[in-house]
Amino acid sequence: MSKLRVAVIGAHGRIGSEAVRAVAAAEDMELVAELGRGDELETLTRAGAQVAVELTHPDSVMDNLEFCLANGIHGVVGTTGWTEDRLARLNSWLDAAPSTGVLIAPNFSIGAVLTMTFARQAARFFESAEVVELHHRGKADSPSGTATRTAQLIAAAREDAGLPRQEDPTTHGLPGARGADVDGVPVHAVRLRGLLAHQEVLFGDTGETLTIRHDSLHHSCFMPGILLGARRVVDTPGLTFGLEHFLDLG
Ligand SMILES: NC(=O)C1=CN([C@@H]2O[C@H](COP(=O)(O)OP(=O)(O)OC[C@H]3O[C@@H](n4cnc5c(N)ncnc54)[C@H](OP(=O)(O)O)[C@@H]3O)[C@@H](O)[C@H]2O)C=CC1
Ligand SMILES: O=C(O)C1=N[C@H](C(=O)O)C[C@H](O)C1
């Protein structure tokens, strides 16, 4: 059987360099290109890439995906910074390339995917919910894509259950102390040397709290999700948002 031809964009970065090693070690894949900043995107077509794993920066990801989709290359995207506007532009490129697929995964680690699943399940049972994400100091964006997605899922589950949007009871204080408001769910971002990627989802109601915590301790935790995404995206045209769609979570 022929091997899946996979390229990595952002190949010299923290997660990209790990992805290069993981793709190269996968028996069913061939690593056909490793692109860093300034490298020509045409390398992807010359190398015959079928899938591009995109792990760069919110400022770079749109141009890279526009090129990939214009050339029939599927995308597995870990880069953050997704807004409604960006998703609409991506969908318009996908409309013009109907047999091509893109997976955007706010987080490729199984523990983080389960955290989001459990948080969505718990959301309707608690009056209040907040998210705290903690990352290394080199991270470009805040809050993290995972925390934003988690808060959106919590807010949607609350709305589905008929719960009101959370009101902030604070009347006095310093700006920013209550975090960012994501659909009514406060999200707090910590940046600390020594950390990698961590998240706590806090729920509270009368007389009890529930905390769901996940810790990514090494970039290797993202690799099974990236490889799964590459294998599945070639048979999944259109946009898939979230690795959970490629997992059987019961
Ligand atoms: N979904 C997930 O599970 C995960 C997602 N991420 C996300 O992945 C992204 C990268 O994170 P991280 O590896 O820590 O960041 P790094 O800064 O370590 O790596 C990004 C790399 O991409 C390069 N780059 C930037 N623009 C381009 C471009 N146009 N073409 C090719 N290479 C480019 C950078 O080059 P230069 O250094 O010159 O700027 C850098 O080498 C972030 O958005 C992060 O949030 C990270 C971990 C897990
Ligand atoms: O920049 C990182 O490191 C990470 N980025 C992703 C995010 O923003 O959610 C995933 C994970 O948290 C690591």
Key terms for this structure?
binds NADPH dihydro-nicotinamide-adenine-dinucleotide phosphate; Dihydrodipicolinate Reductase, domain 2; single chain; elongated; binds the ligand O=C(O)C1=N[C@H](C(=O)O)C[C@H](O)C1; 250 residues; 11 strands; Rossmann fold; 26% strand; 32% helix; 5-stranded mixed sheet; 6-stranded parallel sheet; alpha/beta
Question: Summarize this, please?
Answer:
This protein has helices at 14-25, 42-46, 61-70, 84-95, 110-122, 145-160, 223-233; strands at residues 4-9, 29-35, 51-54, 74-77, 101-104, 128-135, 180-182, 185-191, 197-205, 208-216, 238-241. By secondary structure, the protein is an alpha/beta fold. A hairpin with a 2-residue loop joins strand 9 and strand 10 (208-216).
The biggest sheet, with number of strands, parallel, antiparallel or mixed sense and barrel status, is: 6 strands, parallel
Hetero groups = NADPH dihydro-nicotinamide-adenine-dinucleotide phosphate, the ligand O=C(O)C1=N[C@H](C(=O)O)C[C@H](O)C1
The beta-strand count equals 11
CATH topology descriptor of the largest domain: Rossmann fold
- N-to-C order of helices and strands: EHEHEHEHEHEHEEEEHE
Radius of gyration: 19 Å
Percent in helix: 25-40%
Structural class: alpha/beta
Within the largest sheet, what's the order of strands?
Answer: 2-1-3-4-5-11
Tertiary shape: elongated
CATH class of the largest domain: Alpha Beta
CATH architecture annotation of the largest domain: 3-Layer(aba) Sandwich
Number of domains: 2
> Which oligomeric state applies?
single chain
Name of the CATH homologous superfamily of the largest domain: NAD(P)-binding Rossmann-like Domain
How much of the sequence is in beta strands? Answer: 25-35%
Q: Alpha-carbon distance between the termini?
A: 31 Å
Q: What is the residue-mean pLDDT, rounded to a whole number?
A: 97
Biased composition (Basic and acidic residues): 158-170
Subcellular location: Cytoplasm
Domain Dihydrodipicolinate reductase N-terminal: 5-108
Region (Disordered): 158-180
